[in-house]
Amino acid sequence: MEEDDPSRHIWFRDFIDPNFVQLYAVRDVIYSGKTKFQRVDIIHTNSFGKCLVLDGKIQSSEKDEFIYHEALVHPAMLTHPHPQTVFIAGGGEGATLREVLAHRSVEKVVMVDIDQEAVDICQRFLPSLHQNSFKDNRGQVLHLDAREYLSGSRDRFDIIIIDLTDPVEGGPSCQLYTQQFYRFARESLAPGGILSVQAGSCNLGESTIFVAINSTLRSVFPQVFPYQTHVPSFGGLWGFVLASQQLNPLSQSVEEVDEQISARVLGDLKFYDGLTHQGMFSLPRYLRQEISQGKSIITDEKLLSLC
Amino acid sequence: MEEDDPSRHIWFRDFIDPNFVQLYAVRDVIYSGKTKFQRVDIIHTNSFGKCLVLDGKIQSSEKDEFIYHEALVHPAMLTHPHPQTVFIAGGGEGATLREVLAHRSVEKVVMVDIDQEAVDICQRFLPSLHQNSFKDNRGQVLHLDAREYLSGSRDRFDIIIIDLTDPVEGGPSCQLYTQQFYRFARESLAPGGILSVQAGSCNLGESTIFVAINSTLRSVFPQVFPYQTHVPSFGGLWGFVLASQQLNPLSQSVEEVDEQISARVLGDLKFYDGLTHQGMFSLPRYLRQEISQGKSIITDEKLLSLC
Amino acid sequence: MEEDDPSRHIWFRDFIDPNFVQLYAVRDVIYSGKTKFQRVDIIHTNSFGKCLVLDGKIQSSEKDEFIYHEALVHPAMLTHPHPQTVFIAGGGEGATLREVLAHRSVEKVVMVDIDQEAVDICQRFLPSLHQNSFKDNRGQVLHLDAREYLSGSRDRFDIIIIDLTDPVEGGPSCQLYTQQFYRFARESLAPGGILSVQAGSCNLGESTIFVAINSTLRSVFPQVFPYQTHVPSFGGLWGFVLASQQLNPLSQSVEEVDEQISARVLGDLKFYDGLTHQGMFSLPRYLRQEISQGKSIITDEKLLSLC
Amino acid sequence: MEEDDPSRHIWFRDFIDPNFVQLYAVRDVIYSGKTKFQRVDIIHTNSFGKCLVLDGKIQSSEKDEFIYHEALVHPAMLTHPHPQTVFIAGGGEGATLREVLAHRSVEKVVMVDIDQEAVDICQRFLPSLHQNSFKDNRGQVLHLDAREYLSGSRDRFDIIIIDLTDPVEGGPSCQLYTQQFYRFARESLAPGGILSVQAGSCNLGESTIFVAINSTLRSVFPQVFPYQTHVPSFGGLWGFVLASQQLNPLSQSVEEVDEQISARVLGDLKFYDGLTHQGMFSLPRYLRQEISQGKSIITDEKLLSLC
């Protein structure tokens, strides 16, 4: 634990908030550049392996991305009885696609990520994340605005997964966190379809965005289920939301989820199973209260204050 | 978010591990000193309010201590049908005592913290933590070695709570994480008694101590139940373990826990309730696997490598 | 050099510029508060001892303040043949006063520091800096605006020393770096009088203020002499300027300066002597060029951009 | 000055000492790797441009390397009446070579740097430093141990320049800071020859190595002249020493040095001239006292404690 160990002289600094900062020792900066949409860095940290960093925020680390991507994909996929068509908004590193394709029932996946350059960089430098998922014939990757795609297409999907960067000023994703966008998503769901949304931090005192996404989704969908898990490289607890017309992720028992996984998912999951599912949906009291009291609705006219 | 804001020019640096550091902006250092046993700082951070720091690690922050202390105390207390006598090892800031005393059934609490100076400093500078719990007639505070007390006393307790600092080299608590100590604790439990242990980080890849405490307790108690929650000022997920001869915290439903709280606990809890209880005991798959595969047993002869 | 040494878990962060930061390990924060004029911290660092910090910038450290204060005071005092009356603007910690009073010739010193609270805090917590200089009968300390004092008074001084904080937005000293202020200073000098000004960083690429102070003084005084020295706790090289009607600090040889010190100064100087004097006034080529090319003049109407 | 500006999320951390740290915002890490001898990083900082970092310490930055290299080379070269042959120990980035070759009188330069890989990396990634000096026919670059070369060769040089990394444990340069090495250097000087040594920090309180190099050189050479200048990217004042049998750098006036530069050096110097020369050799009183009191002599048997 020598301070002057040269393997710890370069650090990545992540501002969780202005008064709370995380530092990661960096072994190497593999790539640094700006695309048309955002700044992209691929850094190799000592603690978390290779990380994708967009506009200064870690999006995925080799060490813990399995937690985030399993948490984002499988609850929705396994609540649905037989998902065949899946839409992914964002997801540039290909790991969400990877988890979706592990489901035997899946026949077609459309992934729409606006930033082709970023996707190409991930494909080149982060093979452990995509694991060649981009080569699966069931998948189709388009470089368009996901909102325009959904609003303009007549395709219907069993599952829609929103895997976007957090909204930041000038970032590419502000318009994809609004009531209007969620309505386009609703119209693009096939009957019985489910929407899964990555929904920002739900650390104590930092859950404003998470709460607002919940209340916005409640204004569009009758069934809305928040859940969370801990993603170390994101600086704490991370929130997700399932939304649908009627399907309920809590209707299955721990054992039923485990059985579904065995029957429907190829390969082993490291993070997700029935008990993990139960844990994720069992939010602590204070957070349930914040969510239930949340009233602010994000609209195109009233974006999140970060935008 | 100005970098040079003078309210953010002093920072507390917490090494989660040598490659991962957290920084907290400090408004004021209220107290700094060394007792016979450890270094004590009371710092006022911008994000977490006043914090007790022992040997460089945050033990309690005003903002999130309710999570830690409710998680440490109430699962054991509510699994027991009628706890009247409670022993606390450590707990110098008085917040564990505060939560214990919220139970109507409690008649006697013995708190043994070796470091009188540290307890006095907490009493003076952290009133929001102890909330005058030291003045309750049911409580008795002794400044002895908790292990010597338990091994030498014939008292029996319904609940024993181990609220010690993490084991660090030269720190006061290394001998209180061993099989021998847990045996003394077992002999000091009344029939039907329950032991609750704060058990260190269970962040992904940092759960060595947590896993070892679990396997050590399994070598002493027939019933051992790990659980976790997120404590931001501790740098992530924090582990706890319940151990007993037969009582099982999972035998109660979510609703039954809620009913027990209403009937038995004075005042409102902010963090803990039936659903929180269910969430805490539903560990993610990878962590359950690590715990079940854990074999190393901490003994007086083979202390944790940190000691 | 252990990273997790608890004696190095609190750090003072000094932004030399947005891309270059210095961190000082803090043993203790002795005082923190806000006066009517500025934020005041007294911190005890491991490397530099106790430090006075105003609005987030170190003003004096026990370790190296002798360099700054000897450099600010003695070149002017020893260039003057027999200084009897001295005016100090600022200088709240009392160390400039201390160095002035070491001159046998001095009969009267008027120190005007607007911030009485800050002066009181220094007097209480930084005895090693003032060394009881406030108790010397030759000195008089007033808590007024130095500019108002000089513009309104008919007193004339042999030496005027400007020992103010750097100009920062909303800080108390912006009006004391302008042509108009220097004119008031000029009118307050007795015949043969000398003005000594602390003039900010002269680190490579950071000398904008230093250069502007030089050109502003050249618009008011016929004789202007920049000099510099290294003050570690200020983050590098620090600039000063002497200005007068005719006296020239370079007219004395190394040996003559040494003789003057022996004859006129009580006690030992640690930093300043004839050779040090020669070194300070021998600026590197690039800095002399920047100064000679400097044209911008600070006026009441056109303050420094930092103000 | 936004903290979360993504162009300031990667930082290089330089431990000036365990209690004092400098941080540089990093735009890009251009190269990272380990040679047989040391860790090599080429980083592009926001403040200092591209920097060569060896074993975690900045060796040269685009912004201020002219100060270091002009200070290392020209005082020795211009004290000598007509230097034709020059030996450089170290100097891998080629900038010392560049300054030497600017002297019209130079006919032959032998540069011996043990680390071929590091030299190749510099040649490839730091063209602004070497400025094609490696292609000059007068120069010869060998990848050998400089001590073995000097002790084994019968060549004699007018000037020997020691441009090595600071001694650190396990680093390549510990044996090149000893009395025995300086004796080999002395024997390799032609009559009237001069040795110039980069000699580490001379910041207040950090001059142990600088002082020891001075006393060690005094045990080998009759004429020893310490000097210093400020190199921001090295964290403060940097020390150098000239040693010779009889030549004295202080025998020339400011004007004579300026005349010599005009007559003998191609191109413009940015840092060095007669007045700069005078400033560098005019050390502050406390440092002259430390040097004159220094007694410890570095020998092969008693290396610096850092080694």
Describe this structure in words.
The structure is a homotetramer of 307-residue chains. The first copy, chain A, has helices at 65-79, 95-101, 116-125, 127-130, 146-152, 179-187, 208-218, 254-264, 274-281, 285-293; strands at 10-17, 20-34, 39-45, 49-54, 57-61, 85-90, 108-112, 139-142, 157-163, 189-201, 223-231, 236-244. The first copy, chain A, has 307 residues and is α/β, with parallel strands linked by helices. Chain A has two domains: 6-60, Spermidine synthase, tetramerisation domain (Spermidine Synthase, Chain: A, domain 2), CATH 2.30.140.10; 65-293, Vaccinia Virus protein VP39 (Rossmann fold, 3-Layer(aba) Sandwich). In chain A, the strands form two sheets. In chain A, strands 8-7-6-9-10-12-11 form a seven-stranded mixed β-sheet, sandwiched between helices. A five-stranded antiparallel β-sheet of chain A has the order 1-2-3-4-5. In chain A, a hairpin with a 4-residue loop joins strand 11 and strand 12 (236-244). In chain A, helix 1 packs across helix 2 (95-101) and helix 8 (254-264) packs across helix 9 (274-281). The model of chain A has no long low-confidence stretch (mean pLDDT 93). Chains in contact: A-B, A-C, A-D, B-C, B-D, C-D. Chains C and D meet through strand 1, strand 2, helix 9 and helix 10 of C and strand 1, strand 2, helix 9 and helix 10 of D. Strand 2 (20-34) of chain C pairs antiparallel with strand 2 of chain D.
